[in-house]
Amino acid sequence: MRSTPRGLSQRRRGRLLKVVGAVFAAVAALLLIVAPASQATSPSPTPSPSATTFQNSISGFLRGDDRAPIADVTITAKQGDFTGTTKSGANGSWTIGVPAQGTYEIELDESTLPEGIKLADGQENPRQVTFSQTSNLSVIFAFGEGIVVQQQDFGQNLINRLVAGLSFGLLLALAAVGLSLIFGTTGLTNFAHGEMVTLGAVLVFAFNAMNLPFWLAILLAVAGGGLFGYVQDAGLWKPLRRRGTGLVPMMIVSIGLALAVRYVIQFFFGGATQQLPFAQSAEIQIGPISISPNNLWSLVISAVVIAVLGVVLLKTRLGKATRAVADNPALAAASGIDVDSVIRIVWVTGGMLAALGGILWAYYRPGVTFDMGSQILLLIFAGVTLGGLGTVWGALIGSIIVGIFVELTTVFGLAADLKYVGALFIMIIVLLIRPQGILGRRERVG
Amino acid sequence: MDFGFIFSSAAGELFSPTTAAYALATLGLAVHFGYAGLLNFGQAGFMAVGAYGFAISTLTFGVPFFIGVLIAVVCSAIFALLLGIPTLRLRADYLAIVTIAAAEIVRYIVTTNQLTSVTGSANGLAAFEGGFYAMNPFPEGSYFGMNNRDFFIRVVGWSLVAVCCLLVWLLMRSPWGRVLKGIREDENAVRSLGKNVYAYKMQALIIGGVLGALAGMIFTLPRGAVQPANYGTELTFFLYTCLLLGGLGTVLGPVVGAMIFWVVLSLTQGILYGLIESGTITWLNTVQAGQLRYILVGVALMLLMIFRPQGVLGNKKELAFA
């Protein structure tokens, strides 16, 4: 009777193979629906003529230290006989099409810079840039803080950054709470969570490009995120749990999934940075705080969503069941809770929260790229670990700390391109002195 | 479609310096994950420390080649120590998150504009390989269709791979290696035998990290440039794919895995480009073909982990996880 178990396992293996395929089919289908539309629109408001004639391009965004775009600046790319010139558009973007990949000399004409803005100290200009494997090379020019003529006073800056950090922390929390719930109920450290974040923003861009109303695009994108969570659990994680796959293999599977989904998104979306509607907005003044309306909206939306989630978790039967499963799945099952359906709901919720977080992140940065989610994945992890893996309130508090910390470090003199380092460093330090995190319990550390 | 060219360039990948670098770095991962059960997701960070340690000591301090290599190796050992002190007592998933965070910290630090004079920021560093090629014993000429520089780096790279494989093999069959495998199987059992588990894990982390640093140098020497973008988290994930392809707890698995990885990547690229140029495939452009390959890498990593976690050469009993 040796053949029976083997046949069974082979059948199961076949089924699993099918569902893995189904997951990808679903993602691809989701993106296929929206792909033609996204290709139909022209990405940048001022496409320079030279960009369209060549396949390779050098591009970038000119943004001041306050993240405001810098328009009408002349940039030149040179290589041998070839010279390409362009001006930055209203959103600060510029693209120069070049005939071949290789090394180019990029020069920013400093006389065309608006008043009060100068290149940062140590920013080479002109400078040499080299293509590496991709057809688009992005070049960043840093504009200095110390050199800008108008200097904000320290206290003002501190308050502004504090509010911006709170806004950033709350959007991180949206993703982190989902990640933490998934970890709590299934034990999985999901490295594909960053791609769930990206998907939300990419879907809004795509639906918007199909000329759907803005509010509908956002609703559909959040629903799409939930659907992705559902398909992931139904197609991949539930069969793996059934199989009794260990947590470390599942973590590595999630890395494979993250890679695959990231490049599937890039396949359809391309490598460029796109902007969502209403991404540009002037700062408004509320009392002593100056904040962009987008950040304010982001802050309010994430605070409301998290509050609602908190009420659901604390007051409803479903919330109690979720917390019971997170606490002890076996005991929860024994007391009549349908563990699998709770986990399914957690995945759908986590997907929706991540998608919403991704949309807000696209406004915060601002811009949509295929790897925007994986850029903040570690900050989400940092928030979750700071608060304590598996605890929902811990994820919330941890994320807010990370968000505020990231924004405040720039006030206290850390360079803007190092601001994520501080948050990651703090995470490592906290693990050193309190490995279970702020709200975690000792037993979770193992 | 020129199949001769496609296959010859795929075969060229078998012994390319990049494959040697991947093999070495994956061997380091095998020591970490395959033998000691340490889930190190920061191998790209070790490679970056090796590459930058060598490049900076050569360019900024002008040290001779071997001193530069020594500095890089010492730097990676220190990096392993710093990483190990807070994390080796923690559970596997914490170690994973901290190592990946540490690798990203390294990448951010070498990318920042604040240190442009030392690290070259996003553009990286170049022109530090002179000391290496000055030692080239091969006179100019053609060696199996390569020039003497290409041939020299291959000889050095693969000799290094062979020596390191031998060392790891000797280590793992020594009493030290048996303790390490014991820790992988059951940490508490080994601890109850009076072994200092923490010290063994730390030693394994350092050895694997040094292998990663050597790999970083082999990776960067033939390019003549080191750029931070090459050392992102994807690199670590590709190394894990190589490791799972070849086999976790094996010495030759990483080498075989790296070879398969690069040959398959080269073959799919050649065939896809050929089909696009001949007009057979019209729904893809060459950029998308490049992305398609990485989608395949991700899917392969998932399927390997699910269906054949022991890889080509591995033994299912030797898996680092249940």
Write a concise synopsis of the structure shown.
Chain A has helices at residues 3-40, 49-53, 154-186, 193-209, 214-243, 247-269, 293-315, 317-327, 329-334, 339-364, 372-387, 392-411, 419-433, and strands spanning 56-61, 74-79, 82-87, 93-98, 103-108, 127-130, 136-138, 284-286, 289-291. Chain A is of the alpha+beta class. Chain A is globular and about 75 Å long.
- Kindly estimate the percentage of residues of chain B that lie in beta strands according to DSSP: under 5%
**Structural class assignment of chain A:** alpha+beta
Q: Biggest sheet of chain A, open or closed, and with what strands and sense?
A: 4 strands, antiparallel
Helix share bin of chain B: over 70%
Radius of gyration of chain B, whole Å:
20 Å
Unreliable stretches of chain B (pLDDT < 50, length at least 5) are none
CATH class wording of chain B:
Mainly Alpha
- Could you name the CATH topology of the largest domain in chain A? ABC transporter involved in vitamin B12 uptake, BtuC
Which series of helices and strands of chain B comes N to C? HHHHHHEHHHHHEHHH
Strand content of chain A: 5-15%
Structural class computed from helices and strand pairing of chain B: mainly alpha
Task: List the domain count of chain A as a whole number.
Answer: 2
Overview of this protein structure:
- The complex is a heterodimer of chains A (446) and B (322).
- By secondary structure, chain A is α+β, with helices and mostly antiparallel strands.
- Chain A has two domains: 50-138, Immunoglobulins (Immunoglobulin-like); 154-444, ABC transporter involved in vitamin B12 uptake, BtuC, CATH 1.10.3470.
- Helices cover 59% and strands 10% of the residues of chain A.
- Chain A is built from 13 helices and nine strands.
- In chain A, helix 1 (3-40) runs parallel beside helix 6 (247-269), helix 4 packs parallel to helix 6 (247-269) and helix 4 (193-209) packs across helix 11 (372-387).
- Chain A starts with a helix and ends in a 13-residue tail after the last helix.
- By secondary structure, chain B is mostly helical.
- Chain B has a single domain (3-318), classed as ABC transporter involved in vitamin B12 uptake, BtuC (Orthogonal Bundle), CATH 1.10.3470.
- In chain B, 70% of the residues lie in helices and 1% in strands.
- Chain B starts with a helix and ends in a 15-residue tail after the last helix.
- In chain B, 51% of the residues are buried.
- Chains A and B meet through helix 1, strand 6, helix 6, helix 11 and helix 13 of A and helix 4, helix 5, helix 12 and helix 14 of B.
